Amino acid sequence: MCKTGTMVTVGNLLGARTLGLRAVHIDRADTDIRWVATSELRDPAPFLEGGEILLTTGMETRQWHAEWDDYVRRLADAAVAAVGLGIGLTHAKMPTELAAACRRHRVNLFEVPRQTTFVAVSRHVAQLLQEQESATAREAFKTQGRLIAAATKADPPAAVIAALAQAVDGAACLMAPDGRVISGPLGPRRADFPLEEIAADVRRMQSYGLRSAAGQSRPALSVSVHPIGLRGKPSTYLATMGSAQQSDGQRQAVTTAVAVLGLVDEQTRSRAISRRQVRTRVIELLVENDSRTAQLVMEVDSLAPALPARVRFLRASGSAADIDDGLAAMERRRALAAGYADELCAAVKPEQAQAAADELVAAGLQVGIGDAIALHDAANGYRTAGLALTQTTPAAMLVTWDRVVDHGPLALIDPQRAAAFAESWLRGLDSEQRETLRCFLRHHGSRLKVAEELGLHRNTVRNRLDAIEAMLPGRLDDPQTRVSAWIALQSLNE
């Protein structure tokens, strides 16, 4: 009887004492048997599919000597599992030339005694195959039960891949789309797991979606990679390593694991959608400066971080796919983040803002970091993050409010609009008058200091300023006029 989960082999057949088969040359006792064929043809090879036990009495071979070599060679090419020669009819004993040819071509050979019918051999193989099929089905059913039960554990993905690794007698690993290990490798052969190569396969598979799969064949090993998920982009990838010749039950185990992990992923996604909805509401409340209600809503999400006393807001813009990747990155950091007003919005501790923003930039988003503020003043932090975001460009994807403050109010004005304003507001002033006006503003309206810096008489300075003032929309003593003049001069493309 063959072992559960393995194929029926030549060794299993020869081990049947009731048949009395005698091994003559057994090159590989572990050769799988697919079926039994009986033939008295001089060349039965064209009628074989491979893996058969060929039974013959050698009716057409009574006078053969050298002819046995071509006969066996053709059978070797047809990949027979073994040749069984019936003794006592055409041949009284095993022909030495046949045995020699089987040794040369590495074909299994055994004797079938006169009292053993070919039907008995065929019936026994059929019984072994049926037992093997039933055993495989029972083992597959048990494996499916273990995989389904694993999905109810505290950490379903880890439990499922652990059960799968045992089922394939190898190793299994769960990976993120970027090749990062989520769980594993687990299993009796985890030390042989080609982690870096499989991570590269996973990264290549990202663009192919849920319909992709990859495989590698190595001496005595096979590796398969399957995307996990029921819809949208794959959330994870299952990589499995087992023996080069896996049984049907082992292949079914992989298929079952992919299906179970897909259901687990769907449940996880549903919970993630609910958590994101809660966190979106929290962000809305913070923007409305209702931190007390925001704290209460956060208690609905047991996985959410506690709201800190001081926060920095991060506002990020980009494609929907990049925002989704950014949210996943923030969730891995256990940061409060949500999609809000077509942006990604996050509220983090001030000391965590830079690292979180760097991850969002890595996800392809442009990011503005707001001022560090008390939680009850969250609306101001959200607003300053938005102003910082407006200053980002594809070349400068991250801007902080601190930098905006350092650069003054001009950092908040679009350069093209500022230049247009400057040209219009200073129209009519020549370069000498503009330099005089700039010096006047620099010295806070002190005509004496302007005269000293430019080396002019005070009356000359007064006359110049009167002429300048006549061409401006307001008086130079007016603070609004001075502010407009300063902005215009700073915005000139000179």
TrEMBL record:
User: Domain Purine catabolism PurC-like: where?
Assistant: 28-128
**Can you say what this protein is called?**
Purine catabolism regulator
Short name of one Pfam family? PucR
Domain of life (superkingdom) = Bacteria
* Membrane-spanning residues: none
Biological source species:
Mycolicibacterium frederiksbergense
Give start and end of each PucR C-terminal helix-turn-helix domain: 434-490
Q: Which InterPro entries match?
A: CdaR-like_regulators (IPR051448), PucR_C-HTH_dom (IPR025736), PucR_C-HTH_sf (IPR042070), PucR_dom (IPR012914)
